[in-house]
Fold these 4 entries.
Entry 1:
Amino acid sequence: MIALDAMGGDHAPDAMVAGAARAVRAGLRVLLVGDADRLRPLVPAGVDIPIHHCPTAVAMGERRPTQAVRASPAPSVAVTMRLVAEGRAAAGVSCGHTGATMAAALFSLGRLPGVERPAITMVVPRADGGELTILDLGANVDCRPAHLAQFAVMGSAFTRRVRAVERPRVGLLSNGEEPGKGDERVQKAGPLVAATGVHFVGNIEPTAAFGGGCDVLVCDGFVGNIMLKTVEATAAVVTHIVREEILAHRSARAGAWLLRPALRRIRERTDASSLGGALLLGVDGVVVVGHGRSDAQAVSSAVRYAARCVEEGLVDGVREAMAAG
């Protein structure tokens, strides 16, 4: 059973219920957490989705998420994580306020032994056709070198368990490959990462990382979050320019028609709604953080992603890796 915060997200609760219904039709069990009076009319006829009633939620614009999740009565995201902690759900999914989701997960689930800072972790496509695990993408804006070493261990364990990469190559994001490159934190983190026993390939630049130079890319949350948003913005700009050029020229429109199958495959590989969201890695449970703008397809993908992480024994894998490292 996957607990889904049905009240979190820009398009909640409609997209949450629709996404849950897609996941249920695919054979998964989903528990909706939210205002039953609002959720029940949205559940499609013939689809069995239980509802755990919770009338309150954390607003997307909440500026004090830690206080919000401690409020009484508890908001939907806090109840979602509590259900996971109590063993009534195998994993929790929320597309709501990221800070509130992190706070609720930490309060209810706690950290795994040896983990000082959980990390937001995401898998993105690489240019060589493979995939790249990136962490941290925003959970921690001020990391110590030791935290980066822990991220390396957790990211490597995730990549082995869930992505089935036997010996993941771990790179430390920097502005050059030489050992002396990077700021003081990166320079101090290198030897610590190497000492953990992961397959450390050293400092790596973004071009090399996205080109296939590593399987796990480690960075602090401030840099990681900016990098992710820059990639998203660049993709949006390029898409806009391509569309403008196609519409401006008749010959380009004809060429685009011929390229439709290839363009469709590119969209499928890069579409955020198919990536499944991000993981909060390092807490004692499976927690998937979906994008705030998630539609029904993205919600369904996030639920499937959470179920897959449970099936692959992600939490035990990270626990074992931290104990060994």
Entry 2:
Amino acid sequence: MPSLKGWGLSILLALSGHAFATESSTLFETQLDNGLQVIVKSDHRSPIVVHQVWYRVGANYEPTHLTGISHMLEHMMFKGTENMAPGEFSREVSRLGGRDNAFTSANYTAYFQIVGREHLGRVMEMEADRMANLKLTEEEFQPERNVVIQERLWAIDDRPSARLFEQFKATAFMSSPERNPIIGWMDDIKNYTLEDLQAWYDRWYSPSNATLVVVGDITPDEVLTYAKQTYGQILARDIAPPRSAVEIPQQGQRRIILKDAVPVPSLLIGFHAPSLVTAEDPADVYALAVLSSILGGNDSSLLTQALVRDQQLASSAGSFYRFLGRLGSQFALSAQPNPGVSVAQLEEALLAQITRLQNEPVTQAELNRVLAQAEAAHVFSQDSIQSQANMLGMLVSVGLPASTFDDYVDNLRQVTPEQIQQVANRYLQLDQSTVAILEPSGETNRRPAARPDFGGRSH
């Protein structure tokens, strides 16, 4: 389950730590009779294909007592079907000379294989099989639940920075499922039943709730032929819409302090912000994305220059803004103080940079720097067929057109210094902020959990 992180170095790098792009002239889109959405992008530079199936279900779809069940089901999808033994799926992909994996996010659950073009039909046959014929048993479920428990201990509970971010989200969001961790809260993980998993699979794993994405050395006609022979044989099912999940308006700043065995403090400040899905005006999202890159995109960014180099208050400082969420986002700043600098001093300095941007437009030179980085990333993005497939799948899974980023560079070029100043004033208000602080507890002997055995798959 490779992690898909948030927006960072530039606008393109803001998506899962990679840069992606699509060209509408090379995209083929259709829908099978059973509702399966099909997207194909041909790229004939190498005789390989990326085959992905994306389900529109993730942590943001889960009720409060079943947090993390989408991720748990992702694990169980490798535990056999009526036609394949547990683990046989991945063994077969390996035998074909390919590799496979899966990942769960707040908005989707996705499964992928990378194989030679001659093996596409076979992996589509296997993926269609587990879409329709997953076999869930207590014998496989109980040990795999323990794997997920260990994964949570390893990835979050024994990592202070991960716990800080988890508690930050749980504080920033009060009613939206955005507050819940993708892996789930530990008590929920320990109380899943096999019936819970079966019901979740039956509700969401249907062709009418899925998107097939294929990118690589293949033609749309070939993909469509295979798709009709495999996925096309699965009966359509009606999918009930997810429950309403509106975040209640924030009424004042929220603060949380954690203590743990860390050598230095950490500071995280976040503000509610729209995503491309929720924004009334998409121009605000592009302006916020540019603002995030100006503040903390890389070593030449404003926060690094001001807090790390000039004032020498911080050892590191940055920002992030994830704007492909189905239910909104957070615009966040982070920093670690230098020895002798208090968290209060660092917080004041961070907020001073926000105030500066609210009072003074950024320079055209600062804006041009970010645009140049984004355009370079746009060109670089074409090198990876998996990156191209990931972008297509993410976009359609949150309800955006596959062609959303066709003209993204043009959208960035339209952002002005005045727009950046406007969104800084509109969204970066203290009474809409959440402050999370990680302080040293004085302990030094915390022993981290061992990395779980994921059965040959890299999580």
Entry 3:
Amino acid sequence: MTIDAEVQALSRVPLFQGLEPSKLRLLAFISDRMEFQDGEHLCHQGDDGDSAFVVLSGEVAVFVDENEVAKVGQYAIIGEIAILCDVPRTATLQSVGTTHILAISKDDFLKLIAEFPKVSLEIMRVLALRLEKTTRELAQARPAST
């Protein structure tokens, strides 16, 4: 994939929408390109969080305690919780089919957040939506009191 194609892909990631193309080009340039085959792991639950991943193509299954909890596809960003919260990875990520990834290092991701407040606001929005969804699911799973 060319840098121009990577810039186009990054512009479709909700977290990075609104960033200037020159900043997206820099982000694409400093990121690592990775390819995973079906069943390969991007990372394991409990690992140190040293990067976030942008799915350029393909699909990634998300496992928590060996249970598949989600699948994410093209233009998703995953793995950001570990680097934002400075905690071990909260999930295992496994490629479904051939998957192409841009890996953004922790340092570069944190610099991006510091430089662009819009990215910080979008991260807060995404994390708040995830928290709301989890809270709702927990409430539905809890047995009603009698």
Entry 4:
Amino acid sequence: MSAPEILAPAGGQESLVAAVRAGADAVYLGAKGFNARRNAENFADLAEAVSYCHARGVKTHIALNTLVSDDELPALDAELEEICAAGADAVIVQDWAVAQRARAMCPSLVLHASTQMAIHNAAGAKMAEDAGFARVVLARELSLQEIAAIRQQTRLELEAFVHGALCMSASGMCYLSSALGERSGNRGLCAQPCRLNFRENGREYALSLKDLSNFKHLRALAEAGVCSFKIEGRMRRAEYVASAVDACHKALRGEPYDEESLKRMFSRAGFTDGYLTGKRTLAMFGRRREEDVAAEKEYAQMRALYRGEYHRVGVDMRFWADAAGSHLAASDGENAAEIADAAPEAARTAPTTAGRVRESLAKTGDTPFYLRDCAVELPQGVALPGAQINRMRREALAALLEKRAAPRPIPCQSAPLSIAPRCAAGQPKLRARFESFAQLEAFPVERVEYAILPAREITAHPQALEIPNLVCELPALLYPGMETNALPQGVSRALCENLGAVRLAREADLQVFGGHGLNIFNSLALEAYAQMGLASATLSCELTLRAATHMGGSLERGIVAYGRLPLMRLRACPVNRCHACPGQSELTDRKGVRFPLLCDARRYVTLFNSVPLYIGDKRLDGLDFATLYFTIESPRECRAVLEAFERAAPPDFPRTTGQYFKGVL
């Protein structure tokens, strides 16, 4: 088994140098746009950053892991061209449109599925594998056993986070930032409102997790099949990056590392490994405190880790001398350089020995090279100045470094950006999604196109199968081991909120409807899901209504037009009282606003918006359907909402229109 890769964040030039000099095997960084840390410094000159890394034997993974609008597709093409010209080793992707354009323009460009794709089971990994991805960045919420289970069912490379900030929500399924402040995490501008003081039953900061640190489990992760250890932190200081890379190296070698210094470098009341070990308790929660902040003295100590080059590139040298001159040939296995200099003179006192030459050649100094093998051939009784040998070594290594830094562009060609025209649609049909079977009590299901009910409710109430227009909603999160009984017997249609669920429904020969959790943000992504066999798809709730109604393609599309939208899907429950929990609770923010929490059969918890979305009094022409998304409403309230929509009446309750009329950043 080859040694796992240490993958470090590079939010700017100083962090890039720190990561490389501290010993990272690869770095991930953002270009000018379309990456999940748009607030980071990022890299205006991508080619220069890639060349710097390649010269030193370090791979570069470029983050293109945000959702892209139709208007931004030409700019996306330009960024792909820049990435290919720079010769990057891989791109990290969330949006299917990015994957499609990469396949069309630069098929040899390596694709990695971002953690923003929310791949957390083998079925999701297989979807990425079938689409040509080489690697998947696994969800942070997985346990060691769950990672091993995924490894057994896919050939994809597996990458896992081992250190850094923990998002409270499953990645790619968080809309809290856009709902509260229009800054979308799926667009790279998360404002981290989860770090504010949300209270649960008097307990403060109920959405703030401690930082992750799994350095103690690196050997177990490698044995589970993880090939890349990812350090989070493109928004953090260079000293943090260097210290985390150094600690990862030491942990891999079985050496002690200074965890207390790491905590002070950046932590939130310490670290947690709760997801990996399956201990998802309140001990996972914490926030940044004054005592967590490192002193300048410690920052200075960390800077020492990246003052000089990391000697990672082996070089073979051959030195020989004759009457014609002195010669040095150097090779790193791929590149070669040869230097000629003055011939040796007859020794007046002690002659130069082969050992002395080797000693001089081994002084690679502030370069990324180390002497791997050395052969020296000298005539007897000759003398060579040490300065001459050192000069030849410096010139040979400089020539090698220059060759290693030369651009290695990836073939890239222009490809027509064709989007199928939209088939005209009239007024949308209504669909209704229910949280519980009880909400159907007085609801006229014949007045909606489809009645959508969670799988757990269909299993608990088999009489639901008598509803002719029934759609089974699969869980938004299906961790390994949960897929087996996910589909109730007798259903013919499935609503899927994630990639894994799409595959499970297809394998069961069900009619597949895409949910808003698929984050469909543009026409190309919509077409990609059409090619996967979906019958219809709910578009992202972060789109404007204009963008949604003007999206091209032939696949039936719609939006959520009413309901408390899911803002987060949580595996670490902020309530954490399973023994005495009715399955429903709430969080209160610093302004006293209440956000409902609903538990899904102890598998995960969903945080919903404080007020329902309602646009029944707005024009929805151009959509095929609009979904009424019921959560905590009574049966009477469900029916009242339906009747209000049928009359296109304004609501008689507080409402939000979401992002449909303002959009997200």
